[in-house]
From TrEMBL:
Domain Histidine kinase: 241-440
Membrane topology (UniProt): Multi-pass membrane protein
Record field: catalytic activity: ATP + protein L-histidine = ADP + protein N-phospho-L-histidine
InterPro entries assigned: 2C_sensor_his_kinase (IPR050980), HAMP_dom (IPR003660), HATPase_C_sf (IPR036890), HATPase_dom (IPR003594), His_kinase_dom (IPR005467), HisK_dim/P_dom (IPR003661), HisK_dim/P_sf (IPR036097), Sig_transdc_His_kin-like_C (IPR004358)
Subcellular location: Cell inner membrane
This protein's name: histidine kinase
Transmembrane segments: 162-181
EC class name: transferase
Enzyme Commission code(s) on record: 2.7.13.3
Annotated HAMP domain residues: 182-233
Amino acid sequence: MTLRMKSFLPHGLIGRALLILVLPVVTLQLVVSLIIIQRHFDGVTRQMSRTVRVEVAWLLSEVEAARDLGAAQAGMGRIASGLGLGAALPATGAPPAQDQRLWWDLSGREVGTVLHEGLAGLEVVDLLTNPREVQLWLRTDFGLMRVDVPRTRVTASNPHQLLVISILASVVMTGVAYLFLRNQLVPINRLAQAAEAFGRGQTLPYKPRGALEVRAAGKAFLDMRARIERQIEQRTLLLSGVSHDLRGPITRLKLGLSLLPEDEETEALQADVTAMERLVEEFLAFARGDALEETVTAAPSEVVQELVGRWARRGEAVTLGDLAPIGPMRLRVQAVERALDNLIGNGLRHGSRVRVMTLASERFLRIVVEDDGPGIPQARREEAMQPFARLDAARDPNRGGGVGLGLSIAADIARSHGGELRLGQSEALGGLKAELLLAR
């Protein structure tokens, strides 16, 4: 029941604010107006009906006092014409079996009640046959008499005019409230857009505006963004220095080993230095991230084709699958290529074939990398995306494996593009299926 109600409620902040602020006020205004109007016009209707009752009672007494039908008709006609009433004696046709009125005619109910209270000979009050008249059927010594009273004589004209005015005023004020709320919520929307863009690595120009609370939130966001950018810049400078300082000794080690006589011990040392260089590169890539890389407009299909082509030119068994027809989108091309390199490298390390393809939905671009390796058990897929996670000995860096950062780097890059990394089972190749989701 709660879920069914939520589906009909507005999802936007403007709609919810209007629902919270305007709906109770409008409802209260309409209910109060309806009660006051109904009570007021009920009183007016009773007063007017009493006046008509006195007039009809006089007409009825004149008819009852007549000696014969002719005198009764003459007296009835004289009085009825003077009072502006219609009268017929004896009345033609048959009266309704009971009082008649529309079910929503509340004032008509009061008319019937008042007239029946003071007219002993009144049989039926008919407000339905002719909506412009009140037909009264009365019993006399000379038969049934019908008196036609204009409806305006017993009820006020336009009794719900005030209610209509209240409804129109409520509609106008709701529109005014909507405009004011919309103007107040524009700064919140801009703040949300700036925060979302910063989460994707884009820095949009933003200036705090709006109410004091919104300005305070905007200033806090700008301070936070500045701190994060400073930390990223300092970390990048630090890592650049570390990278420079480490590359020198490693290069000297490689040069020194290349001058030594080639034997098993030298080859082992060279392999260790190569592994050390690879580990340093992966550590730096993980620590550097992609926050400071430039976001450009690029065609995803061209990026994937170029990357797969590079792997194929190296002689690796990397093939290209179907490519979704999607136009250019905002990407950090180097970061996406680094994530795909990690996924393809993992696939070739644990399998013999890798296939890359792209799929597109309304919100996301999915780059799928599949291999024919052993895959990752479902219970350990979340663990596999944690930094430095190595699930078995085959992934030990001392045995040719990685350092446990490939999937973690790919997941961070996907998150920085507003998406995520998903791991599953490849139906086509039987190994691991890694889906890199990028927000469009």
